[in-house]
Amino acid sequence: MKKFYVTTPIYYVNDSPHIGHAYTTILADVLSRYHRGAGEDVFFLTGLDEHGQKVKQAAEKRGMSPQAHADDLAPRFLNLWKKLDIRYDDFVRTTQERHKKIVQAVLQKVHDAGDIYSGEYEGLYSVAEERFITPEEHATGQFRDVKTIKEKNYFFRMGKYQQKLIDYIQAHPDFIRPEHRRNEMLGFLKQPLEDLCISRPKSRMDWGIEIPFDKDYVTYVWFDALINYISIPGYMSDEKKFAKWWPADVHLIGKDILTTHSIYWPTMLFSLGLPLPKVIFAHGWWLTGQAKMSKSLGNVVNPLDLIEQYGVDAVRYYLMREMVLGQDANFTLESFIKCFNSDLANDYGNLLNRVSGLTAKNHGGIVPKPGALTPAEEEIKKLAETLPGQVRELVAVFKVQEAVTAVIEFVRVLNKYVETQAPWKLAKTDMEAAGRVIYTAAEGLRIATVMLEPVMPVKTATVLDVLGATDSGSVWGQLKAGTVLKTHPPLFPRIEVEKA
Ligand code: MSP
Q1: Pocket flag, ligand 1, residue 256 (CB < 6 Å)
Q2: Residue 443: exposure state from Cβ atoms within 10 A (0-12, 13-18, ≥19)
Q3: Rg of the chain's alpha carbons, rounded to an integer?
Q4: Sign of torsion, CA 212 213 214 220?
Q5: In which band, very low, low, confident or very high, does the pLDDT at 453 lie, cut at 50, 70 and 90?
Q6: How much distance in Å is there from the Cα of 211 to the middle of ligand 1?
Q7: CA atoms within 13 A on the CB side of 124
Q8: What is the mean pLDDT of residues 299-311?
Q9: Cα angle 307, 33, 229; round to 5
Q10: 252 CB less than 6 Å from ligand 1?
Q11: Helices 375-396 and 400-421, axial angle in degrees (round to 10)
């Protein structure tokens, strides 16, 4: 059986999650569901990054210990994932023993291999980014909370792997996606790659995993965090499980953490002698106005409010439909409502209303027989038969927005077909023809619904239930004539702009 291992970044527990965090997690969930639907064995990993200066500072502000602070915030993430219908397979917290002991084993292994050494370091440190930055980076003015720090530390011989990494990226065009991010990293690698400082003296920052060969130090939060991708699927603890899942099929990340994932992480894996993840996919940012949505800018949208008001499916749908993977997207209530009213209320919801309404009115509430198809139905059937393959191909190359668009366009074609055929008129003169149109529209709706399930698990379950087709697949003709359709409230009642 084909396997699919997908990860999200593990989120810092410095505050409640916002739409930006929710986005990556929903995206991973949608991909997971499509791959499961295609019969693959899926492992979807997400979780929390609980160590480091940022979390420590957030805890101090609240007058709590970092662990108590993390324990207090973790349920906010878990609760949101539950509300968003996220079906992850494992949830890591970096303070868990199962993760900490592997980070220590990895440090020891890399140290024994001669890839970690101690040295004096003086440099500029950005607390906001949790890493040392170069003077050139500092000059861009994009880094907040910058201090000069001089101290003894441990270093990972990252520079040693520079050429190997360049060769690897060049030989594997799909490793860093999209293309402009790959070019950005190849550009970055034109400068000499320095070794990576991977420790913090406890005297300055003690909230981290202790370095096994020096009790006065903890490891750098990124060295700790990245290892979650291998510690959880069993590296150095369950070799069978690890062999099954590693390498990951995709690490989904935001573009803000591209360097750590496509430079630090691969060189760490080189040192361990492990294969690299197949794809690192960096999506863009959700903006509000012109700025990145972030807590420190105070412009975040709380996903819980949106779910409360418009339902989880609409939120998931909007986020998948609006962002072209790889580019930034603007979050506005206006575009949310527009998308809701047009795609979900007018197109998808309306198709269900017509099918169930006309079935009730003219066919006694029972799915009529398909009858002998005319060219108009053959056309619909052909589209329905190509749709699943087309959607899966797009999803396989991370074109989720295009995949969703393809389904909703098919729904539009179905609505148009119903309008042109006017089964309400046919019902007065030719019941068989009216039945054929209703069957075709209902069966098209069913297939569109199966293809939308990964994006809208709740509403699509309702639709399949109405159609009496809960266990059906994407093959044409599975809707049974004679099925009694269930009654239902409107699927997506239009949002009145005034009220919103
Ligand atoms: N803890 C690190 C990641 C370690 S992974 C081994 C971290 N955490 S974070 O809480 O800052 O979350 C970063 C991720 O959240 C981004 O990479 C992105 O996936 C998501 N987003 C946060 N804000 C975002 C937007 N405004 N827009 C889109 N996604 C963004 O970095």
Answers
A1: yes
A2: buried
A3: 26
A4: negative
A5: very high
A6: 26
A7: 15
A8: 89
A9: 95
A10: no
A11: 170
Write the DSSP symbol of residue 8: -
> Up-side HSE of residue 27: CA atoms within 13 Å toward CB?
33
HSE at residue 81, side-chain half, CA atoms within 13 A, is: 25
* Mean pLDDT computed over 67-91: 98
Cβ neighbours of 397 (radius 10 Å) = 13
Q: Which of 403, 479, 492, 493 is nearest to 447 (CA)?
A: 479
Peptide bond connecting 192 to the previous residue in cis, omega within 30 degrees of 0: no
pTM surpassing 0.85?
Answer: yes
| Cα–Cα nearest to 154, from 212, 198, 193 | 198
- Side-chain-side CA neighbours of residue 147 (13 Å): 10
Which one, of 235, 231, 204, 264, lies nearest residue 52 by Cα? 204
Type of residue numbered 175: F
Is the torsion defined by CA of 69, 213, 155, 7 positive or negative? negative
CA of 321 relative to ligand 1 center, distance in Å: 20
Query: Mind listing the pLDDT tens digit for each residue in 114-134?
Result: 999 999 888 898 888 877 888
Return the residue whose CA atom lies nearest to atom 9 of ligand 1.
11
Q: Which of 217, 26, 40 is nearest to 121 (CA)?
A: 217
Q: Are 17 and 77 in contact (CB under 8 A)?
A: yes
The amino acid that residue 331 corresponds to is F
Burial of 364 (0-12, 13-18, 19+ CB in 10 A): exposed
Q: Which of 26, 76, 127, 257 to mutate to test the pocket of ligand 1 (most atoms within 8 A of CB)?
A: 257
Query: What sign has the CA pseudo-torsion 475, 89, 198, 72?
Result: positive
Centroid of ligand 1 to alpha carbon of 11 (angstroms): 6
Residues near 119 by Cβ (< 8 Å), separated by ≥ 6? 152, 153, 154, 155
Residue 119 sits at φ, ψ, to 5 deg, of: -165, 170
Both structure tokens of 391: 């959607």
Look at residue 500 and tell me whether its pLDDT is greater than 80.
no
Residue 97: per-residue pLDDT = 98
